[in-house]
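Q: I'm building a small set of examples for a reading group on sequence design. Run inverse folding on the following structure and report the sequence directly after it, with nothing in between.
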């Protein structure tokens, strides 16, 4: 009989390993454990730092039932704090982004806060005994700037990003030379009826590139697929390839120059759910954030950034291609997998991992699953069962 304990799963050799059991992708109790043990102490990408260039510029980000304001104050400092009035719990800002010209005013009782979260005024507080505005500062949220991105973390004791992801910033800067000049072009949220891990799994393997839909085949044709490499580090991973030197067009646009620096296909994943990528020849950077809603629904947040004042035609074409062709093709695969995972005829499959860790090997999927597993169960030698 096959040993199905968590310890047995963790001890599998990669080349013979079976996937996580299907319940890991739809069980509400396991999802609740992921919420508490993964996402409540994770670093969440809020925006590129250039989106907050202007004093008062802000973005509001949500994870589960938590809402966070990230904002630049008049002195140029960045702050993150909970999006909640300290009077009766009203949410302060409902827009996703904007520029706060004055104080942040609660629409309920007009308590007013500075851009650092400090209470500046509360109507009638002068008539209230022992009322001190310093007692009602909005609780701050951990914030870091990493590789041009602004991140927040709901755990005040979380390990800093440079320690968690050593080498990741250098990797992204090497692949995307214009990282610091990026400006947001467009951002869209799409709700997908699939577990967040199903979506991540699809994005971190090359096995299906030349085997699934026509748009994946189109992408493979733009790269040197023999040079496609998938590499994992402790808490981050990269996958990509050099551009196809013989490509004459990309996304329906003619290429009038040979490949140059920054024209390759590059993806970097920052545990657990942040992905930054660059399609070949696209001259832009994409962000692909998987934001879990529940055990079987996720938000995909697609962001597009450019260093150019005027968008090149190939950039416009690559965005259309992602939004209208490759993206929907991937989403349909995600939905189909999520449905199939409920089948009585399936529980575990086989990771297709070869000894060479080739361009079609699924070793990144296993690495990602091991990170999830470790967060849920602890060290394999002393397994701690997650809810089942």
């Amino acid at each position: 009989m096959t040993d199905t304990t968590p310890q047995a799963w963790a001890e599998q050799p990669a080349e013979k390993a079976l996937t996580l059991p299907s319940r890991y992708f739809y069980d509400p109790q396991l999802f609740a454990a992921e919420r508490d043990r993964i996402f409540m102490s994770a670093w969440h990408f809020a925006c590129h730092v250039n989106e907050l260039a202007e004093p008062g510029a802000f973005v509001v980000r949500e994870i589960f039932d938590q809402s966070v304001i990230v904002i630049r104050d008049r002195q140029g400092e960045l702050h993150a704090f909970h999006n909640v009035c300290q009077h009766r719990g009203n949410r302060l800002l409902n827009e996703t982004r904007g520029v706060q010209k004055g104080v942040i005013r609660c629409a309920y009782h007009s308590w007013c806060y500075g851009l650092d979260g400090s209470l500046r005024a509360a109507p009638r507080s002068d008539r209230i005994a022992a009322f001190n505005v310093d007692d009602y500062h909005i609780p701050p949220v951990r914030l870091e700037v990493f590789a041009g991105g602004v991140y927040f973390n709901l755990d005040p004791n979380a390990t800093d990003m440079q320690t968690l992801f050593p080498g990741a910033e250098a990797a992204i800067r090497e692949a995307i030379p214009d990282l610091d000049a990026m400006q947001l072009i467009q951002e869209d949220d799409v709700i997908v009826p699939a577990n967040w891990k199903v979506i991540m799994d699809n994005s971190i393997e090359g096995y299906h590139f030349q085997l699934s839909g026509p748009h994946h085949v189109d992408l493979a044709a733009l790269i040197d697929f023999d040079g496609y490499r998938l590499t994992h580090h402790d808490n981050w991973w990269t996958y990509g390839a050099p551009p196809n030197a013989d490509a004459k067009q990309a996304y329906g646009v003619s290429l009038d120059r040979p490949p140059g620096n920054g024209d390759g296909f590059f993806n970097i994943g920052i545990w657990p759910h942040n992905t930054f990528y660059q399609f070949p020849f696209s001259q832009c950077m994409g962000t692909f954030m998987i934001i879990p809603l529940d055990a079987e629904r996720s938000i995909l947040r697609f962001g597009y950034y450019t260093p150019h004042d005027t968008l090149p035609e190939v950039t416009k074409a690559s965005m259309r291609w992602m939004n209208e062709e490759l993206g929907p093709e991937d989403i349909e695969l995600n939905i189909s997998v999520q449905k199939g995972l409920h089948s009585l005829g399936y529980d575990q499959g086989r990771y297709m991992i070869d000894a060479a860790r080739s361009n079609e090997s699924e070793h990144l999927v296993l690495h990602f699953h091991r990170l999830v597993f470790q967060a849920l169960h602890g060290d394999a030698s002393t397994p701690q069962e997650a809810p089942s």
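Residues 313-340 form the longest helix (28 residues).
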